[in-house]
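Reopening closed ticket. The problem is back. First fold of the pair:
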Amino acid sequence: MFWKRIAVRETERALIFLRGRLEEVLEPGVYWKWMLGREVELFDTLEAVVDSGNREALLRSGDTLVERYFVRVRAAEGRAAVLLAGGVLLRVLGPGEVALLCWPPKAIAVREFDIVAEPAVDAALIPAILRYGAAAARVHLVTIAEQTAGLVYIEGRLARRIGPGVHAFWAMLGAVRVEQVDLRRQAIEVNGQEILTKDKVTLRVNVTAEYRVVDPERAARTVRNAGETLYRLLQLAVRRTLGTRTLDELLLEKVDIDAGAAAQIRKEMGEVGVEVGGMALKDIVLPGEIREILNQVVTAEKKAQANLIQRREETAATRSLLNTARLMEESPLLLRLKELETLEKLTEKVGSVTVTGGFEGLLEKLLARK
């Protein structure tokens, strides 16, 4: 029962372990072995990297038997070792990790990288890592879009800025995080801001501003959020602008953000790497009771204007009639022409007219019929 038949194929080797230590390596052939307290494991020599269940025992073993059948590849401290065969990534070793290769070693290229001095993965290696798997390679992959900057943080420390494209970073020595910053012009809105005017009237205003991050590293080191910082500065600028004016001044003038306050905002934001463009008051919203009072004032003003215009027109019409009467009094011929004009208007609405007694009789009959 304790004897076991072991068949080793041409491309295989059999490892015999006794209590966790490599005791013997069997070449191709058929063997009968006493297995009490022993364990056998087969591995394929065609596989470049040995993945043995007793790998740790093999690595701990320092005898010549291991050195005869295997080659050890170890990554130094602070470095990563990449095993490649024909451009195909076989294994990624972190600092201090060891891989076992079959002897004689196949055509395997071993590339080492100083991941402390250069945490970014070589761009030429990224396609092979994508096929192998970023998680298995312990690599952090990130894609940066156009008009966007990437800020790389390693163990919470800002390491560098990267541009658009696909990037990879070794994540063996610490957590890697990439924060993307939009470099395009953006708009920020401050809506429903309540302001108390100089004459103690509460208004609600909406403010808009444009800004663009021009120095992402400086912005990341000096402020937590550039948009929130600009938001607070706009709130203060609006209070400074509207708090010193009365309601009548705001309604009569085209009020905008104070020039001095706007210049101060641009200066402060420029110091943190943000360029601020136009700033403007979009809307001024009055309380309901104030709006009703203003509507009444406007209605009264418009009624007064309408009455004034009506009186002016009546005065002008009366003056015109007076001037006409004076002219007819001074000129009998003009009076006769006015009578003929009146006669023409009367005859437009009369079917037939019998004339007796001359022109005066015609006028009498027309007026009587009218």
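Second fold of the pair, where the issue appears:
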Amino acid sequence: MLDIKRIRERPNEIREGLTRRGADPVLLDRVIELDRTRRGLVTQVEDLKNRRNADSKKIGMLKKAGEDTAAIQAEVRAAGDRIATMDEEIRTVEGSLGEAMLRLPNVPCPAIPTGADASANRVVRHAGESRPFDFEPQDHIAIGERLGLFDFPRATRMSGAGFPLLLGAGAKLQRALIQYMLDMHTTRHGYTEMLPPFVVNSDSMRGTGQLPKMAEDMYHCEVDDLWLIPTAEVPVTNYFRDEIIDRPLPVYLTAYTPCFRREAGSAGKETRGILRVHQFDKVEMVKFVEPSTSYAELETLVGHAEDVLQGLGLHYRVIELCSGDISFAAAKCYDIELWAPGQHGWLEVSSCSNFEDFQARRANIRYRDATGKPQFIHTLNGSGVALPRLMIAILEQCQQADGSVTLPPAIVPYMNGLTQIVPRG
């Protein structure tokens, strides 16, 4: 959520930022008008209360003097009725203002590229090299079926399209990668591991910015008002909701969770395999940091996600997203994309974002500054990393001419020494 004081004092700055990201400035105009109306009503009510208090004192003096107080008492009663009516008006306006504020996206960082869509994103760097093949590389579907790693027909029969089923070495590889990433983030990068709930309430979803904008993209149990999490970012960030953090900063947390999303990709695009699914596993990194350090912390967050891929020896690139391509809550975001030779394209495997104090204001997460005064903290999160496309990249980048897949050495200890997945006999 944006700071209403910032909106009052620098509306043109907010308008320019929303325009850069392609957001409708009409919503900002509504926020400004509702805030002006609310403040006007509050001022009127305060004036009425002051007059009523003064008249109430006057009634006591008149009674002591033996004078008639009927007229002034009637005025006090009328003022009370008017105050009650206006208090209800204020509550109504405040509700509308709160809803409008929740729908305002974050303002993009001035330093990021300006553009309407992904075509304006900037490639920051490449890492590793694209492996030359002396055979036609297969996609992960063909590889996985040949190696017995997936069973898509039975998964569809159980749950419908977009819910993958991994078997044998496929399930083991997924589990090994999760353990590999958690070990790296906790032992090398200084994160504390969490295992949070996989369902959260609506307040938690609002806190990180999923509600109200993305309600239709998520799975909701209306009876209990609980949501299947679309990312571990939601429960991990909400760990400190409605709190003043009482521990030294920064705080780094990491968690593995399954993730659930109704919207599994762009309409009309390939939905076979595990490229675009409704359920997937992910290891997430979340940071709570002082505002003055948040952009430096973003760079190290990206580095932590890159370490995962570098340790596996994979070819990837880092993209700085433009103003029109960042998420609703982000001020700045980097995507990390893995090369998938069987897909002949790049696949996003991590998004690392700085939300500044946008989420903290929604979730009421604060810290104490050097003077001891509570201030809103800055939150960051990044995939460290998402599993389906990491699996795709490993299968496609590490495939061999004989149909086998040679596993990255870093993952071999987590596979009980298995170095290669070979076709079934």
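Update: turned out to be a display glitch only; the data is intact. The chain has a mean pLDDT of 96. The chain has two domains: 4-103, 118-421. Please close again.
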